[in-house]
Write the structure tokens for this entry.
Amino acid sequence: MFEQFLPKKFCRDFAEIKFTSSQLTMIMATIKGIKPCMDDWVRVDRFDAYQKICKRYGLFVKPDTIFKVVKKDDLPENIIGKQRLTTTTAFGLSLDNPDKDGAVHVFISKTKKNLDNAFKNGWYPLIIKNRVIDKPLADAFKFGYDLGYPKCCVAFFQKYNNWNKYSNLYEIFKNTPENKYCYLCNPFTKDMTYSYIYHMPCSYNCEETIKLTKRIKEAIKEEEPEFVRKIDEHLRLPSLVFYERKIYAFEGKLQNKKLHYKEVYFIGQMSENNLYEADLKRGDCIFIEGKDVLILKKERLIKRIKWQAKDFAPEAPFIIQFN
Amino acid sequence: MLLKRHLSFSLTKLTIAEEFNSICGFSCYPRKTNYLTGYVERKDSLFSHLAGIYFSSPKTFKKLKIKIKSWLKEEESESVFALAGYIYYLSNNFKKAKYYFLKTISLNPDNLDNWIDLAFALRHNGEYGMSRDILFNYNYIMYYYKYLKLAGCKYFKLKKLAAEIIKHTPNDG
């Protein structure tokens, strides 16, 4: 599971040029005109080739800045605002910088108008000189509309995407009726190739999100039916979520609030957050007690992951199985 | 009659800060300076608070939009110019936002927040080059703006300064 995917034909060139199938579904949805715009990252030395591919698919392209991604722990102490960086930690370089060792942050769309709107709101927090430079909050909110996210989800995100206060994914969980978790609203795999959405839905059965994902799914199915089969398979995996960057997916089944599993995968992107994979691999069952996660092996407790209060990126573990 | 006079007297006595507070429920004063030597990413949180109001309470935001015109007549300060810039930015009037952010800079060029605000207004105005020049060289631009005493200068002089800086500084991002 979670291996890279190479399409038979449609958008295969994107996966080849980027050396990754990440965001492939978003590119497909943009080409099909379902998604008004998207942003992507391409290695500097591959950018010209990427542009040519975009042109072939009728996409307009607008590059913004160059990212030099670094691990958060490797950042110098004196970087102002580094504790606030959440999903990506990168130094920003201007496009004319001769340094070829980085990734171009790029916007693509079928129309110039959508491209321009998204570009204006789409600055990403970057370290420039010795501090994080971020866009105004209003731009962050508007960017969600530019990317075609449902209004209800943008509004929910505005309220709960506060890393000092909430675990956004848990708030979504609370906002969903029990056992009404639709796999089409699963955002956990969004950075792992196998997802139809790239936004945080307002609930795990958000009607607007389902409408959107159904359109994307149908469009991809016409071109790459095998990809759709695999995406669906991944989206239905039960997951243990601590917060946005600490998530595990399992091959297993949730029964009476206990998840019995055979295999576990860390899908939280930042490897420094992968604290429990080894423990989980030793076990075969997990469940939540209070806010602690208990790992069992043959019904015997082998590990209790004790909940800890955090000032930033608070964790609220929950187990979820999508229908 | 007496009550009416009293009320009108009270209203005229309200300062901009008090009026703002009565509309929004929080304060917009004093605007603090985010010095380059300081250790915070951003000092002023007013822009974020106003964004919250813009999205969650359009009626309140509309009141601010009306009020800012009279506040600008009453007071020419960095705080009021910044407030005006934010209100116009949120209303998608980026030309006016740029105009007021330039005013904040001429009054307080040491405030990094003023420069970043200007850079994003320029981005929305389609002035990508100048926006990028500020974002990637804010330290040099702030220094030379003061050194060359450009406060209140025409915008093209600022552009010229940015172009010179790009020409002569190492491209280290």
Summary: The interface with chain B takes residues 65-66, 68, 80-81, 84, 91-99, 120, 123, 128-129, 131-139, 141, 155, 158 of chain A (CB under 8 Å). Residues 259 and 286 of chain A are 5 Å apart (CA to CA). The two ends of chain A are 19 Å apart (CA to CA). Residues 207-223 of chain A form the longest helix (17 residues).
